[in-house]
Design a protein that fits this description.
The complex is a heterotrimer of chains A (511), B (328) and C (322). Chain A is an alpha/beta fold. Chain A contains 16 helices and 22 strands. In chain A, α5 (151-170) runs parallel beside α6 (190-203), α12 crosses α13 (421-435) and α13 packs parallel to α14 (451-466). The longest helix of chain A has 20 residues, at 151-170. The radius of gyration of chain A is 25 Å and the shape is globular. Chain A starts with 9 loop residues before the first strand and ends with a helix. Chain C has a single domain (31-312), classed as ABC transporter involved in vitamin B12 uptake, BtuC, CATH 1.10.3470. Chain C is built from 13 helices and no strands. Classes of the chains: A alpha/beta (511), B mainly alpha (328), C mainly alpha (322). The interface between B and C is large, with 60 and 59 residues.
Chain lengths: 511, 328, 322
């Protein structure tokens, strides 16, 4: 740790940024020294993205100081300016341009440096690209197309591209660079994830990294330091080598409260009917995502699938919903095995509904509440003869739901785009409440909404459960499991660890 | 006093911006403007004879436009409507002697099958709808040309002609037919699960899939409906005019497309509908017949209709809403 | 470190893998040579094939730029038609300098189309189709519906080297220039990048809007330059009859060559191959006893088949929408 006494290559202090009246960042400071990986963790909306965007010049903070080797300087104006100051970013997804060759991608946007009398100097570009590929030990040919490379190698090329960008802007080979990685492992599967992380650790010799992630395991194993953000404030900073911090302490710090849930949800009794199995998974496997998952789901039960991001829980629930297929194993709904490539509509006919908190997947923004609720329940609002839509039934249906869920709206003919986030979410819950499928798959059901609305939604979900609907829950918020689940399947790196009861879950979350 | 005056001005300004300039109102405004202009230029424009001519020229066109509207509503495009229409007209005239009036259901079935092929290419093989239907239209044109051998065929079957040319209440029956079909389409779009699903796919395809809509099957059905209606348009075209003109070519897509967007069905999908298309068809046929009365040739009409098509696409696209959508 | 310097061997196999259309090309040549052994390889037919190739190539080189973005430009026929009408108007006034009207008009047209497409967010296929019809109508209005003859430009097709069609000599630098733009300037890289992943290109700091307009402008410009040659090559008169077939054939050449509708791959260098293949197909059909209608029908089928092959199909199961 002697190098920590050196001057930091990135030094920002007391950064403040607000959108409207809400502070997205309040007095956040960040120092990055040469050759280290600094993790930045926090919930969605904690200010991670805003901080990163302030560092690369997409946002300009209202307050804060930027020190360049101890001298006060201005914040970067745009990404190009940030690169001049030695900072560049690798975006989570969509940053790769698949149909370019590696050498073209490395210099994308910086072609001016390689223009000669007869257009681009391809040999010079290739030579420079080869040097970079060698320097970063990337296992690819400079003439490979990006789409031919494995995802982890693509990420490596993206990182190399960020470094090249800084070097070309500063016009020197040994520029101190800080590369911001925005959830780089999110699109990768388990094997690729480890490969990439090991590569990044090796790259510390060349540059420093700011590593935004949700995956605690990555923080524990690979980071040198970690900074915790919550509600725009910096609530903790740990040196992983000296400060022994456990994963659960970290999670508690991120959420800012005890995980077992202090909020009081009305105790709605759970009526699990163990004699009736509605869904069972037999040795289900999907290569690179999850392996040999077996469980039975009883009527009226809520099974949580708990694991860190990247443990395969999302892929598992999407397979059950019919969004993805599986490779091996069998999935039985009410004892009958299903076809592998059934689409969501076919699964819904068998009584399996998929409810995602991601409202872009659920809502038709231009439509009024009525239509958004009835699209899923079209069979309930058609007339007996000719199957016309009965608008009166449609309206009563929507009115009922919005009354039950306390959706704040003058009437049900209002387009959902004008509702607040919490109320939008209630509309999506509402349509599933009306649908009452046998099995409801919940993926992050309360993502990005405030506490009040969250309680209402929990209550609705528990009521549905009481009526005998079985559920499978996947969430990023551990608290949600203790609030909703009867049993929890623990997953790690694609494998099922064990199935624990609600009481055991409390212990697991507390230690 | 001055204050209230100021307020009044503002409210007039707001009235104009809210009623006249909003995208949904544009068709109405255009209809009124078009009627006024042509009436001023040609006093016989709104006469009985003028109206009957208008009704004649818009009837079969309305049917084909309704079919295209469903496809556009879904966010896709059907380039083959005119070719299918031509094909259907030709099928009727060539085989009426063999099948009698049974040729009509046979023709409609053939056209629905063409629609099925387009739908299959789009839904199952992932071909962009515009290019798939462009290819289909060329194949269908080829078949038509092969069947007609390039000759003009005249329809001599009286029963078939009378479908369109009988006058009921002073109006040729083709008008009643097309209005009936239009009403059916409007009802289908607005009050049935089929229509609701079509809007859903145009509005948010991913949400539609997760709401249990069978995307592939729905898309194939919509293309079949479009083929069917284009076929019906061809039948009425033939029974009304009595001769299959080989002259209607790909350029006729422009007035057809223009009337769909002029009605307010955005190319982005999810909005508008056949109920709006009636207005669009009225606008376009009125403009066309107005131009004809003024003695403008086919070419000038195409120039003006092309400009209208572009203008209407611009007017019906809500750019703020789709700022982040990639347009290819 | 050892593996990094592996060179990609340029075997016949890898060429075939990358350019499957080559198999079709040679296969057809062999097939047609056997079927019509006297006529297919005759000098007359070879010249006709070459003429067909020149027409296709000069029409398709411009739209290829736009196709790289995943968009569509159908206005090229319109530029040729309306440009010819302008030429007919201007030649009596300013003499042969009037030829410059083609590239100028093409450039302006491309810029306008690009700006409308990008700024007003109208899908390019419908926009360029409307523009094409407008140009066709304007051509007919200007020439009063008659195929006006414009004399004085036959020097464009006069033989310079025996047996080699002069338009071919002119089209070579045009093709080379287009390949240069795609392969040796940053424009080319940007077009590929935008077609492949528009969002990614934007994140890499590329002004996507600007380069989209540039692509449409280039498309118009190249269609204009090509039309200088095509004008005389196709008869030296103002074309007034319009057929969708003329629009579709160059598009088939582009798609056959390996530039998919989704963009991001291919380029003018590959369109050469597509145009050659399609010319051979077309001449082969022409030599057969099939009627013109059947040939049109087959051309339509070829279009459908080539698009089906070139489009990847839905990646997200059941979620993708065309």
């Amino acid at each position: 740790m002697t190098e920590r006494t050196l001057t930091p290559i990135l030094d920002v202090r007391n950064v403040c940024k607000s959108f409207g009246k809400v502070y997205a960042l309040e007095d956040v400071s960040l120092k990055i020294f040469p050759s280290e990986i600094v993790g930045v963790v926090g919930e969605n909306g904690a200010g991670k993205t805003t901080l990163m965007k302030s560092l690369v010049g997409i946002h300009v903070p209202e307050k804060g100081e930027w020190y360049d080797k101890g001298v006060k300087a201005a914040f970067p104006k745009d990404p190009k300016d940030a690169a001049k100051k030695g900072i560049s970013i690798v975006y989570q997804e969509r940053g790769v341009v698949p149909s370019l060759q590696v050498y073209q991608f490395l210099f994308l946007g910086n072609e001016e440096k390689y223009v000669g009398a007869f257009g681009l100097q391809i040999p010079r570009m290739k030579k420079a690209a080869q040097e970079i590929i060698d320097e970063f030990h990337i296992k690819c040919d400079i003439e490979d197309f990006m789409f031919e490379l494995p995802l982890s190698t693509q990420k490596m090329v993206e990182i190399a591209r960020a470094v090249v960008n800084i070097r070309l802007e500063q016009n020197k080979q040994d520029a101190d660079s800080v590369i911001i990685l925005d959830e780089p492992t999110a699109p990768l599967n388990i094997e690729e994830r480890h490969e990439l992380l090991n590569e990044i650790v090796r790259l510390k010799a060349n540059c420093s990294f700011v590593f935004v992630t949700h995956i605690m395991q990555e923080v524990m194993e690979y980071m040198d330091r970690v900074i915790v953000l919550r509600d725009g404030r910096q609530v903790g900073e740990y040196d992983m080598a000296t400060n022994k911090v456990t994963e659960n302490e970290l999670v508690r710090m991120i959420l800012g409260k005890d995980i077992d849930g202090q909020e009081k949800i009305q105790r709605i009794p759970s009526r699990v009917d163990n004699s009736e199995t509605v869904l069972s998974s037999k040795e289900l496997s999907k290569r690179g995502s999850y392996y040999n998952i077996s469980f039975d789901l009883s009527k009226g039960e809520c099974l949580g699938v708990l694991g860190s991001a990247g443990s395969g829980k999302s892929e598992l629930i999407e397979t059950i919903a019919g969004i993805n297929g599986y490779d091996e194993g069998d999935l039985l709904i009410r004892g009958k095995s299903t076809k592998n490539h059934e689409l969501p509509y076919a699964r819904l006919k068998k009584g399996v509904g998929y409810f995602s908190g991601e409202i872009a997947n659920e809502l038709f923004y231009d439509w009024p509440i009525t239509k958004n609720i009835s699209i899923l329940n079209i069979e309930k609002i058609v007339t007996k003869i000719f199957h016309f839509l009965n608008f009166k039934t449609e309206k009563t249906l929507a009115a009922d739901i919005s009354k039950q869920l306390r959706i704040k709206t003058p009437n049900v003919n209002i387009t959902v785009s004008s509702l607040s986030g919490g109320n939008k979410q209630k509309v999506t819950v509402g349509k599933w409440l009306e649908k009452k499928p046998d099995i409801l798959l919940l993926e992050d059901p309360t993502i990005g909404i405030d506490v009040g609305a969250r309680e209402d939604i929990y209550e609705t979900i528990l009521n549905m459960k009481e009526q005998g609907i079985s559920m499978i829950l996947v969430s990023d918020d551990p608290k949600e499991y203790s609030a909703l689940c009867d049993r929890v399947l623990m997953m790690q790196q694609g494998k099922a660890q064990k199935i624990i009861s609600k009481e055991e879950l409390k212990e697991v979350l507390q230690t | 006093m001055s204050l209230s005056n100021n307020n009044e001005k503002m409210s007039i300004g707001r009235f104009i911006s809210e009623t006249v300039a909003s995208p949904t109102r544009i068709p109405f405004v255009v209809v009124i403007a078009v009627i006024l202009i042509f009436q001023l230029m040609n006093p016989t424009f709104l006469s009985y004879q003028g109206l009957v001519t208008l009704v004649y020229s818009m009837s079969y066109f309305l049917i084909a436009a309704c079919g295209l509207t469903f496809v556009v509503m879904m966010g896709s495009f059907d380039f083959s409507s005119i070719s299918v229409m031509k094909f259907s007209a030709l099928l009727c005239v060539l085989y009426i002697d063999d099948f009698g009036l049974w040729i009509i259901p046979i023709t409609l079935l053939c056209c629905a099958i063409i629609g099925f092929v387009s739908g299959f290419l789009v839904a199952k093989l992932g071909v962009p709808s515009f290019m798939a239907t462009l290819g289909i239209s060329i194949v269908v044109d080829g078949i038509s040309l092969l069947m007609s051998k390039g000759f003009l065929h005249l329809m001599e079957h009286e029963g078939f002609r009378s479908i369109s040319t009988t006058f009921i209440a002073g109006i040729p029956s083709v008008f009643h037919w097309s209005i009936a079909i239009w009403v059916l389409c409007a009802v289908l779009a607005a009050t049935t699960p089929f229509g609701r699903r079509t809007y859903a796919i145009g509005g948010n395809a991913r949400a539609a899939v997760l709401s249990g809509i069978n995307l592939d099957s729905q898309r194939i059905q919509v293309f079949m409906l479009s083929g069917l209606l284009a076929g019906a348009a061809g039948v009425f075209y033939m029974s009304q005019l009595g001769g299959g003109s080989v002259e209607i070519g790909g350029q006729m897509m422009i007035p057809l497309f223009a009337s769909v967007v002029a009605g307010g069905t955005s190319l982005r999908g999810g909005t508008g509908g056949p109920q709006n298309t009636l207005l669009g068809v009225i606008i376009i046929t009125w403009i066309q017949s107005g131009l004809r009365m003024m003695g403008t040739g086919m070419e000038t009409q195409m120039v003006i209709l092309g400009l209208i098509a572009i203008g209407m696409s611009i007017a019906t696209t809500d750019r703020n809403k789709f700022r982040r959508v990639i347009v290819k | 470190m050892s593996m990094v310097n592996r060179k990609k061997s340029l075997t016949i196999l890898s060429v075939v893998k990358n350019y499957p259309v080559i198999i079709i090309f040679f296969g057809l040549i062999i097939l047609f040579s056997i079927l019509y052994h006297q006529r297919f390889l005759s000098p007359a037919n070879l010249t006709a094939t070459l003429r067909q190739f020149i027409t296709l190539m000069l029409f398709s080189v411009g739209p290829t730029f736009v196709m790289l973005l995943g968009s569509m430009d159908q206005s090229f026929i319109g530029i040729w038609m309306l440009g010819s009408a302008f030429l007919w108007l201007l030649t009596p006034i300013i003499g042969p300098v009037a030829l410059l009207v083609f590239p100028l008009f093409g450039l302006v047209s491309g810029l306008c189309i690009g700006a409308i497409h990008v700024k007003l967010r109208i899908p390019s296929f419908i926009l360029t189709l409307s523009v094409l019809i407008i140009y066709w109508g304007l051509t007919a209005i200007i020439s009063k519906g008659n195929p006006r003859n414009v004399p004085g430009y036959s020097f464009l097709t006069d033989d310079i080297i025996p047996f080699v069609p002069t338009p071919l000599l002119y089209s070579i630098p045009i093709i080379l220039l287009s390949v240069f733009i795609v392969k040796r300037t940053k424009l080319g890289t940007y077009f590929y990048a935008i077609g492949s992943n528009e969002e990614g290109a934007r994140l890499a700091g590329i002004n996507v809007e600007k380069y989209k307009i540039v692509a449409f402008a280039l498309s118009g410009l190249f269609s204009g330059i090509g039309s200088i040659v095509l004008f005389q090559h196709l008869g030296g008169t103002v074309p007034v009859s319009f057929s969708m077939n003329n629009v579709v054939r160059p598009l088939i050449a582009i798609i056959l060559g390996g530039t998919p509708l989704s963009g991001g791959r291919g380029g003018p260098q590959r369109t050469i191959l597509g145009a050659l293949t399609f010319s051979v197909i077309y001449r082969g059909l022409y030599l057969s006893t099939l009627g013109a209608e059947v040939i049109d029908l087959i051309v339509g089928l070829i279009l459908i088949i080539s698009i089906v092959i070139s489009s990847k199909g839905g990646e997200l199961r059941g979620v993708e929408v065309a």
